[in-house]
Specification:
single chain, 452 residues, alpha/beta, Rossmann fold, Helicase, Ruva Protein, domain 3, DNA-binding, ATP binding
Length: 452
């Protein structure tokens, strides 16, 4: 048998049970019988059956109708075919209403019931294949997390597909919350290294004294507290991908070390002497103007050109507004299922505000908003009045005056930092974490924008 199907036959007449069992022996890997509903439920609890054939009239406290309900309550995917004597068609119709797949009248025509069983098992197989397909699609979406259909985003996806199969070093640039790590994971998942590890490290999250150990590892006794040998990110990512996020936060000495690794593919643990080989593909990312940092001498020019073999620019959510309804639908479905909430929808006026909003936090901000609304709003339809206050006064897209992009981005960044500081009660570490930037970057931006 191609599929390990099981059939349970339930009838109070021994001749019918044995006759059906012999006649259907080629249709299933195993066939069992039961004389009443209680025995059928016991056997059903012990072993899974894909198909149950049951008489409507059964002895005992439970009849065939109640058996149909109980079986489908236990396992909704089970296919139940009921058989009934002449004159009880109404009962068979009731069984269908309760979820039975089909009914066949007595006396039983073996050829007909075999045909119906084949049809039912084919139906079951197709259902199972569809469930598996949906699971693969959902899993693929969770792995890549890339959703978008606008021209700018399709260009990004096309470039990812072209570059993924190579070992070329990639530099991903884009604002915070645009999905740079998702792009990096897609590069890994679509590559020949997909069976290897994907190691992500946020370079802005470590003080300079610990960053070297985090990247390259350390030997026992190399510094106070180093009680055991620790492999660094370059070792952990062997035969895989190493994602260096916030690459512009890397201090000068670490920049020199990284450049040496990129040129020689070798490194040494902190406190060690053995030269180790690096076999990790390097993908880096930044939300800052790295060229400006190079011009100011704050980031090594030679390292920039070594990292920027293949540049990928991830558009902001403001640059892909036509994707917002698609993203909203995806996040709604995801969070309604995740939080076990009834499926919701957005009214036209609410969707218009979402499309017109500025979104300084980009897709991450939109995602968090949708999750909040799914959890807190009881209505099935979300209207514009239910949106947070910062979206209520949104100027429709295209109605505002045209301003330079740099001015727009800086104003949005300042506003986002102000809002985050206020929500985090001016706790700087919490604010930096909420904005997904390093504390050092937050201090720099607060000084730049005069925020105290």
């Amino acid at each position: 048998m191609e599929h390990d199907y099981g059939i349970l036959i339930v009838d109070d007449e021994p001749n019918i049970r044995s006759g059906l069992a012999k006649g259907l022996v080629k249709e299933a890997a195993r066939i069992e019988t039961a004389g009443d509903a209680e025995e059928a439920l016991r056997k059903f609890a012990e072993r899974a059956f894909q198909l149950v054939i049951a008489d409507v009239r059964l002895p005992g406290d439970l009849d065939g109708l109640e058996l149909v309900s109980r079986l489908l309550q236990e396992e909704p995917e089970t296919i139940v075919i009921v058989i009934t004597a002449q004159g009880t068609v109404e009962m068979a119709v009731e069984a269908m209403r309760r979820g039975a797949y089909d009914f066949i009248s007595k006396p039983v025509d073996l050829a007909l019931i075999r045909q119906q069983v084949q049809k039912a098992l084919t139906h079951h197989r197709l259902q199972e294949e569809n469930r598996q397909l949906r699971s693969r699609l959902i899993a693929a979406d969770e792995i890549c997390g890339i959703i978008g259909n606008c021209t700018a985003f399709r260009d990004v996806i096309r470039l990812v597909q072209q570059v993924a199969s190579t070992d070329a070093t990639v530099l991903i640039r884009g604002e915070s919350g645009t999905g740079k790590e998702l792009i990096a994971r897609a590069l890994h998942d679509l590559s020949d290294r997909s069976s290897g590890p994907f190691v992500a490290v946020n370079l802005g999250a470590f003080p300079e004294s610990l960053l070297e150990s985090e990247l390259f590892g350390h030997e026992i006794g190399s510094f106070t507290g180093a009680t055991r040998r620790k492999p660094g990110c370059f070792e952990q990512a062997r035969r895989g991908t190493l994602f260096l996020d916030e690459i512009t936060e890397m201090p000068a000495k670490s920049q020199v070390d990284l450049l040496r690794i990129l040129e020689t593919n070798r490194f040494v643990r902190v406190g060690g002497e053995e030269s180790l080989t690096s076999d990790a593909r390097i993908v880096s990312a930044t939300n800052r103007n790295i060229l400006k940092l190079v011009e100011e001498g704050r980031f090594r020019e030679d390292l920039y050109y070594r990292l920027n073999i293949v540049p990928i620019e991830v558009p902001s959510l403001r640059q892909r507004r036509e994707d917002i309804p698609l993203l909203v639908e995806h996040f709604l479905n995801h969070f309604c299922q995740h939080h076990r909430r009834p499926l919701k929808a957005f009214a036209d006026d609410a969707m218009q505000k979402l499309v017109s909003a500025h979104w300084p936090g980009n897709v991450r901000q939109l995602r968090n908003l949708i999750e909040r609304l799914v959890v807190t709003e009881q209505a099935d339809v979300i209207t514009s009045q239910m949106l947070p206050s910062e979206l209520q006064s949104t100027i429709p897209f295209g109605a505002a005056r045209i301003v330079p992009l740099a001015e727009t981005a800086e104003a949005a960044e300042k506003q986002a930092i102000q809002a985050a500081l206020s929500q985090c009660e001016f706790h700087r570490e919490k604010t930096a974490k909420a904005l997904d930037i390093s504390l050092r970057t937050l201090h720099y931006k607060m000084s730049r924008y005069g925020l105290h």
